[in-house]
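User: Okay, second chain of the day. Same drill as before: sequence in, structure tokens out.
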Amino acid sequence: MDPLKPSIVFKEQKKCSKCGRVNKTKAKWCKSCRSQHRKNKRQQDPVLHWAKAAVRGAKRRTGSCSVTAEQLKSQAERQQLRCCYCSRAFQWFNRRSGRLSPTVDKVVPDDGYKIENILIACRRCNRVKSDASLQELKGIVKGIEKWKQS
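Assistant: Same drill. Structure tokens below.
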């Protein structure tokens, strides 16, 4: 062993291609640049960002989902970015906790996630509807109206 050569060999460090900081992982960008990039994409098209997350969630829950994110986005735009039941405007950046955040509602619960079987509803209305069909929901609303009048 040569005494002039160092015994420790340092690995070449990667630099972030955006900001030039030393990157601890093998990723192209550092953690803060990736985070900023995701935030910018979310703000550029919040409806598409929501639609992609909704499709991923549907696939995770049921194992199958024939609806694409683009179809879901166009459905939301056809509804003018409003709830199909109460007509209130959605709050896109309210995450999961918001009552007016958008959710995918299956009109007929047993038919699954098909484009002809889904509507975009706010979390509040989707919870009230639960597993009921539209006819059952109308009956629930009529019952509540009768109860309020008496």
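The longest helix spans residues 46-62.

User: Thanks, on to the next one.
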